[in-house]
Write a structure and sequence with these properties.
Pfam families: Methyltransf_15. InterPro entries: RNA_cap_Gua-N2-MeTrfase (IPR019012), SAM-dependent_MTases_sf (IPR029063). GO terms for molecular function: RNA cap trimethylguanosine synthase activity. Belongs to the methyltransferase superfamily. Trimethylguanosine synthase family. The protein is globular, with a radius of gyration of 17 Å. It is an alpha/beta fold. It has an eight-stranded mixed beta sheet with strand order 1-4-3-2-5-6-8-7, with helices on one face. 28% of the residues lie in helices and 17% in strands. The protein binds 7-methyl-guanosine-5'-triphosphate. Residues 54-55, 57-58, 171-174, 176-177, 180, 210, 242-243 line the site of 7-methyl-guanosine-5'-triphosphate.
Length: 256
């Protein structure tokens, strides 16, 4: 699929603000009950597609990650790219942190992107403080970094990235909630994109990966550059981990 910068997209029939439990599909009712810990201002017209409920980062966690990523990244890192923007939970926190000169949010599903844009506006994020990209994040990253064999695909100059100033955040789909069936989650089984696919795309730049709380630390340790380190943080709410984030430095071995 192509990659393009978009303005405000319209909400569609797939975008919902549920008022009562009766309206909510059974498999997301659990998340709807947690709606105020996911978006504290849920009642202020927050919209999600049904699929987005599974992967949205709860607001206190998103806020903390924005603080941590902002502090861990060198001041020379001024552009933040959110590869899987979803309904906007992380992008909103990154924008409200005020840490980044440029934020680029990528999402492949137009209705979900419309929700993210709408939710960002509902949180008071100025329209021009996020560049919204509709398309496949792997195509985008390869074109923007110039690592795509087919060139930049006539990418909008606003969307180009330079490695020295870019940090990537990736909160990919994990393949549903079945990650809980494994005591230690094998990142090679993550669906539809396994860890290797995500790492290959991200490794030219420093990146933070939002992963299942039980992810195999031995697999994450392999992402460290020679002589370097990966920092892993468990993000908790009410005494229980929601997810872990691996903060991975750029790999200087990548050519180009
Ligand atoms: P969860 O395991 O579905 O819920 O998601 P919970 O309430 O912690 O589990 P339970 O043991 O109490 O039943 C936990 C967190 O993981 C959510 O808040 C999301 O932030 C995140 N999350 C869950 N899934 C399935 C995904 C996913 O596919 N992708 C991403 N990026 N995050 C997810």
């Amino acid at each position: 699929m192509g990659v393009k910068k978009v303005g405000q997209l319209p909400l569609t029939s797939e975008c919902h603000h549920y008022y009562t439990r009766d309206e909510v599909p059974w498999d997301i009712q659990k998340y709807w009950h947690q709606r105020y810990s996911i978006f504290s201002c849920y009642d202020d017209d927050i919209y999600l597609t049904d699929d987005a409920w599974f992967g949205v980062t709860p607001e206190p966690v998103a806020t903390r990650i924005a603080q941590d990523l902002g502090a861990l990244s060198a001041p020379t890192k001024t552009t933040l790219v959110d590869l899987f923007a979803g309904a906007g939970g992380n992008v909103i926190a990154f924008a409200l942190s005020g840490r980044w000169e440029r934020i680029i949010a990528v999402e492949r599903d137009a209705p979900t992107l419309a929700c993210a844009q709408h939710n960002a506006a509902a949180h008071g994020v100025p329209a021009d403080s996020v560049v919204w990209v509709l398309g496949d994040c792997f195509d985008y990253l390869a074109q923007a970094l110039g690592t795509d064999a087919d060139g930049d695909g006539d990418l909008d100059p606003d969307l180009r990235l330079d490695r020295a100033s870019t940090t990537v955040f990736a909160s990919p789909p994990w393949g549903g909630v079945d990650y809980r069936l494994q005591d230690v989650f094998d990142l090679a089984t993550m669906q539809p994109y396994d860890m290797e696919t995500i790492y290959r795309a991200c490794r030219p730049v420093e990146h933070a990966l939002y992963l299942p709380r039980t992810s195999d630390l031995r697999q994450i340790a392999k992402l460290a550059p020679p002589g370097g380190k990966v920092e892993v943080v468990q993000y908790c709410m009410e005494g229980a981990s929601k997810a872990m984030v691996a903060y991975v430095p750029e790999s200087r071995e990548v050519e180009g």
